[in-house]
Amino acid sequence: MLVLEAQLSKITSLAVPTFPKLINRGKRNREKRREKKRREERREEEEKKFAVVIISYGATAELSNLKNEALESMTYKDAGVDIDAGSGLVRRIAKMASGIGGFGGIFPLGDSHLVAGTDGVGTKLKLAFETGIHETIGIDLVAMSVNDIVTSGAKPLFFLDYFATSHLDVGLAEKVIKGIVDGCQQSDCALLGGESAEMPDFYADGQYDLSGFAVGIVKKDFVIDGKNIVAGDICNGF
Fold this sequence. Notes:
The protein is an alpha+beta fold and 238 residues long. Among the domains are: 27-55; 103-219, CATH 3.30.1330.10. 42% of the residues lie in helices and 23% in strands. The chain has six helices and seven strands. The chain has helices spanning 2-15, 18-49, 83-96, 124-131, 137-150, 170-187; strands at 52-56, 62-65, 105-109, 112-119, 155-165, 190-198, 208-219. The strands form two sheets. A five-stranded mixed β-sheet has the order 3-4-7-5-6, with helices on one face. The longest helix is centred in the N-terminal third of the chain and has 32 residues, at 18-49. The relative contact order is 0.11.
């Protein structure tokens, strides 16, 4: 009997310390489940609050916010971009220069075609200004122009850039150009040169504008010009 009591006492003394651990672990698990549920509920509320239905996409793109009547209808023109005016300008230019192309202009050269394109980076410059990160905006600049010429099947050959600012900050400009060099390397094309312009009082201090110009080449028989596109064609996205 004494031996049995001693064994029971030993078992009890060993078992008791484990209970708080089990209780605490169970409590933590319940708290985690409750917190996960709260996060899911908050996410669902945010999704309901800002649920956006895309009605159409293009020149008449409209967004309908289910909770905010202020965003009930929005178009490119509402955002300050007049697509109709842009199309009208292109039609006027075409009357003066009938050889203008689509995304890239095509110029016959023997059994090949040169394809040229130009573009900027738009309001993405604001991200560079606000974050102070200037080493990558040049990569995007190259991509904008190169992407336009590859739509015609062209292989990029070379690139030129235009950098304009109020007062030239050599260190900042070097960071921007470094990004352009990286973009050219990624696109397998050469950076041949460019233009750096200082225009005091035209740009705000510390800000700048960028433009890029890319030229590529494609064999005449492999030009993609959209002439063979017909209704019902399948478009593959990668």
